[in-house]
Amino acid sequence: MRDPCFRRLWFADGFRYSAAEVAAFALPITAVLLLEAGPMEIGLIAVCARIGYLAVGLPAGAWIDRWTKRTVMIIAEIVYALAFASVPVAYWLDWLTVPHLFVVAVATSVAGVFFDVSHISVLPLIITKRRVADGNARLQTSKSTIQAVAPSTAGVLTQVVAAPLLYAMASFFHLVSLLLVRSIRVDEDAGDRRHGRRRRLRQEIVEGLRIVVRQPLLRLLISQAALNNLGAGVILTVLPLFLLRDIGMEPWMYGLLSTMGAVAGITASLVAPGLRRRFGEIRMTMVFSALAPVAVVAAPMAGLIPAVAVPLVATAQMLIGFVVVGRAIAAAGLRVRVTSTLFMARVTAANGVVTQGTLPLGALIGGAMAAVWSTSTALWIGVVIMAIPVVLLVRSPLRKHRSLPPEWEKE
Fold first, then answer.
1. What phi and psi, each to the nearest 5 degrees, are found at residue 402?
2. pLDDT tens digits, residue range 263-311?
3. CA atoms of 316 and 319, how far apart (whole Å)
4. Are the beta carbons of 69 and 121 closer than 8 angstroms?
5. What span, in angstroms and rounded, lies between the C-alpha atoms of 215 and 218?
6. What is the CA radius of gyration of the chain?
7. What is the pLDDT of residues 84-96, one digit of tens each?
């Protein structure tokens, strides 16, 4: 936090997280209550919001390795600000429609890919690679704190202003973030300037994928995260129906449970750096990954024991928040340290395409299972899918390591 560039990035991320939470809260209210969107339209908006990595993830990684990351982040913030600002303008002119929300979702999803890949790639240039895990912990603390506070604040604001007008606040937050990112000075050279020539885009994409496949730790992390996200996609899609319709939980209680998960994430972000130093980054990643299916199993158990449904779901939310944040902090530092700075964006993008691409697939599977069988059955299947990576951990030779082998580290 004493590093001025990191401090500016930390503040910029705080405004970005706030914008994301405000927009996420305003979206369902705008689509369902104001525009009377149906279930299919809501589903399409969700797909558009996650289409970024599937659409441009792999080429984005190669492009960003050619460009200066700071410039990419600035352009992405401009796209965010313009896309969000278009919603209140269209609402004021009485032009706001559901297809307009489709366009906004796609634009912000694509901008998010470019910003996130550049962000991950530029962080080791601001602080050393060995401090990336601690830096991610600080960023995650602010993110979890905002996730705990922003939804309730946005809910109060909707009592005063129309939901589409909240997008104006999100747009303003991105403009502030843009100014903070612009003030960061980073010493970076695009990959092409290092080599003195530009190679084919396909060759650069293949290089990034080859690194992910051949490096044992990266291969384990990406396969594990893909399966976890596949199961999480099932659970996240079905859980609201399970709680609000089947269990009969009140909406305010549902919101409170989300806040409890965010508070647990704050706790994890504070204690994770100490745990990482005490037990080793490899061991910490393994343990937190193995705990993921244990954390979610309490949710479907609520259907078996309705009398204690709320305490069980609350337990699941807190455990999930703690485990997900803790694992993310440990794994992020590892991925950076075993990847050369020259290939950072391409490896990050390849990881995002695989891991983020399984979330919408899991959502489709969860919806189909809930329609054919029941929400409870779909939740149990999601838990089983999330338990598969435990087998990968047990069979992995990395389980013998406490910390990252020095020979794997890259400059």
1. -90, -40
2. 787 788 778 777 777 877 777 878 888 888 888 888 788 777 777 777 8
3. 5
4. yes
5. 5
6. 21
7. 999 999 989 988 8
* DSSP state, residue 247: S
CA nearest neighbour of 254 among 317, 173, 193, 199: 317
The alpha carbon dihedral of 98, 103, 106, 108 has a sign of negative
CA pair distance 40, 47, nearest whole angstrom: 11
Instruction: Give Cβ neighbours of residue 120 (< 8 Å, ≥ 6 apart).
Output: 332, 336, 344, 345, 348
Helix H or strand E encompassing 306: none
Could you tell me the end-to-end alpha-carbon distance of the chain, in angstroms, rounded to an integer? 23
What SS3 class is residue 263?
helix
Give 257's contacts (C-beta < 8 A, 6+ positions apart).
243, 313, 314, 317
Q: Report the phi/psi class of residue 190: left, alpha or beta, with left for phi > 0 and alpha for psi in -120 to 50.
A: beta
- Rounded CA gap, 135 and 124, in Å? 9
Tell me if 208 sits within 8 A of 350, measured CB to CB: yes
Tokens of 165: 């007008």
